[in-house]
Amino acid sequence: MTFSFKGLAQGIACAALVLGALPAAATEFRLGLITPPPHTWTKAAEAFGAELAEKSGGAHSVSVFPAQQLGNEAQMLQQLQTGALDMAFMTIAEVSNRVPNMGAFYAPYLANDIGHAAAILRSDTAKGMLAVLPQEAGVVGVGYGSAGMRQILSRGPVASAADLKGLKLRITPFDPILDFYNALGAAPTPMPLPAVYDALANGQVDAIDMDVELINVLKYYEHADTLLLSNHMMFPMVGLISARVYAGLSDDDKAMIAELMAKHVDSTLDVYIAKEPEWTEALTKTGKTIKTVDATFFGEAIAQWETIWTGKAPSLPDLRKTASETQ
């Protein structure tokens, strides 16, 4: 399968017929994220805005709104659909709530590590999955980034998967990860990022599903005892443009904006490849118990997840095939 922004533009023409009247092209775009200002995604969004201003000769600019200033991801996705928000860097998690096929990216142990995850996300298989987003979600997906691999940080000791049973475990609110932790017998607890630190501190949750960057940057380890380095799921991000806004742009602006956003979204993959070992090493110096586990640790939960999601995500077999070919 091949992918091009020209082909994407043709798909948008179809979406425009459904969306109806379109607003005039904007010169100052608003881009929303849930990540805090120091986060890799936020830095990439700011770099995208700076390069767009330069390449457009100042005709276009981007105002970046991090840390859920414009709402949570569900709210921002709705704003994108109506054209009230122009752009977002968003987890595939929220998109999968509207387009279940995107849940295939969360197959446990689809990727061996962050480098392998990057190869999968850069594949034609992954890029081809973006084609339906204008029709099914009202957004244009230009490419993928990442928030690294998922780990488990716990307030108490975890010697086996049985120790996760009954634990209130913070998750991002989307079905693939909910099904995974339900299969483990945990009590998955959806919670926005700003609430996580205090929730760990006061015992509102017993554990969290998180990447090593945020465990470091937001110091979640200060209120936990055990870190399971499991790499059990990749956690992709996608660069999105409102289909309404995109359809109102000139062909030249469509190409320039989509290509520049894709470039900076993709740059996050290289950041995580370079930085994950550094972030992981930093956590080994915190005095916490560090336990490295693999797929065998989770027992039958992975097979249960596959049973549920094989029917929900038609692209799962193709992604598994791509993953095996890119190892």
The spatial strand order of the largest sheet comes to 7-6-8-5-9-11
SSE string, helices as H and strands as E: HEHEHEHHHHEEEHEHEHEEHHEHH
Query: Which outline best applies?
Result: globular
The overall pLDDT average reads 93
- What is the β-strand count? 11
- Please mark out the parts with pLDDT under 50 across 5 or more consecutive residues, or reply none: 13-26
CA(first)-CA(last) distance? 19 Å
Number of helices: 14
Please indicate the percent range of residues in DSSP E strands (runs of 2 or more): 15-25%
Fraction of residues in H or I helices:
40-55%
The structural class is alpha/beta
Can you summarize the main beta sheet? Answer: 6 strands, mixed
Using the CA coordinates, give the radius of gyration: 19 Å
Organism: Ruegeria aquimaris
Main location: periplasm
Subcellular location: Periplasm
InterPro entries: DctP_fam (IPR018389), TRAP_DctP_sf (IPR038404)
Textual characterization of the structure:
The protein has helices spanning about 5-20, 40-55, 75-80, 90-100, 115-120, 125-130, 135, 175-185, 195-200, 210-215, 245, 250-285, 300-310, 315-325, and strands spanning about 30, 60-65, 85-90, 140-150, 150-155, 170, 185-190, 205-210, 225-230, 235-240, 290. The chain has about 325 residues and is of the alpha/beta class. The strands form 2 sheets. It has a 6-stranded mixed beta sheet with strand order 7-6-8-5-9-11. It has a 5-stranded mixed beta sheet with strand order 2-1-3-10-4. Strand 6 (about 170), helix 8 (about 175-185) and strand 7 form a beta-alpha-beta unit. Helix 2 (about 40-55) packs antiparallel against helix 12 and helix 8 (about 175-185) runs antiparallel to helix 13. The longest helix is centred in the last third of the chain and has 34 residues, at about 250-285. Residues about 15-25 have low confidence and may be disordered. Keywords: Periplasm, Signal. This is TRAP transporter substrate-binding protein.
